[in-house]
Design goal:
single chain, alpha/beta, two-stranded antiparallel sheet
């Protein structure tokens, strides 16, 4: 893709997702995620009803009247976007690929974070971590993240969510807001997610296509496994084949939902052609409560 075309796509995504984050998500995001704790702000004269435990005895002694310490929430947070760029993200049977929807959601989340003066970082993964961008503030940094989401070419087409979570755990020493964006066509990350979930505020964002859920009856169809490159002829006319395909999807769905729930993490699921705006907003409002 040429630089001019990439910049055009970045600008298009910025316009769409910036509007969403400015008018819809910024307030919900702020109330959904709390700061790291309370930090000292100033001292002021004691007033009736103040907590005596907050009296600053040094200042009180100096001025011969009671003064208390005032604390405020330490609001600055760090958001990490952990994004699946394996071969299965380049699948879509409606208006766009799963990758395109994931990019839009990631951009919306990133703009919501910088609206609150928070840092944003990025991990792109296949069956290994292919790119790490350390968390920083600012619009230009978010535009760089969007550009990487659009144009980065992975070395591998396979998926390993466990590797991505282990990497995250190693590079992020302080608590972060973590969004893992993937179709979650993997079932080998349970133990690592438990560890990561104890340290960070984790949310899984699952994006899937309607034909991930079930396969239509089209007779004999040549199919390509986008992660292994294997080509096979599938008899979609067979009911048992269609049932097995659907059962596999439902099994992966159950694993995803159960594993995240057990680790104390949140989940969002959206089909490519659904409104992810409603899904995100509903999740933030619920989390804020």
């Amino acid at each position: 893709m040429e630089t001019k075309e990439i910049l055009k796509k970045v600008r298009k995504i910025e316009i769409k997702t910036r509007r969403l984050s400015d008018h819809i998500f910024s307030g919900e995001y702020h109330s959904s995620f709390k700061g790291r704790g309370m930090t000292f702000s100033e001292v002021r004269e004691y007033q009736f009803g103040d907590d005596v435990r907050n009296i600053d005895w040094n200042v009180t002694a100096r001025y011969n009247q009671p003064y208390i310490k005032v604390f405020e929430e330490e609001r600055e947070l760090t958001m990490m976007l952990v994004v699946d760029i394996s071969g299965s993200q380049l699948f879509g049977t409606t208006s766009q690929f799963k990758k395109d929807t994931i990019t839009e959601i990631a951009a919306t989340l990133a703009f919501s974070a910088i609206q609150n003066n928070d840092k944003v970082g990025l991990i792109l993964f296949s069956d290994s971590v292919e790119l790490f961008i350390p968390p920083k503030k600012g619009k230009s940094h978010v535009l760089r993240i969007i550009r990487e989401l659009i144009e980065f070419q992975p070395q591998s087409k396979k998926t390993n969510i466990d590797e991505a979570l282990k990497y995250l755990s190693n590079v992020m020493t302080k608590k972060a807001i973590v969004f893992v964006l993937s179709d979650f066509m993997d079932n080998s990350y349970e133990q690592t997610l438990k560890i990561v979930g104890k340290k960070h505020d984790v949310t899984g964002v699952r994006v899937y296509d309607k034909h991930d859920t079930e396969i239509p009856n089209l007779g004999l169809v040549p199919m390509l496994d986008s992660e292994t490159g294997e080509k096979v002829i599938v008899n979609t006319g067979s009911k048992s084949v269609r049932n097995a395909y659907k059962a596999n999807f439902l099994e992966l769905t159950k694993f995803y939902e159960t594993t995240f729930s057990k680790s104390g993490s949140g989940t969002i699921s959206t089909q490519v052609d659904e409104s992810y705006v409603k899904k995100l907003l509903g999740y933030f409002k619920q989390k804020g409560k």
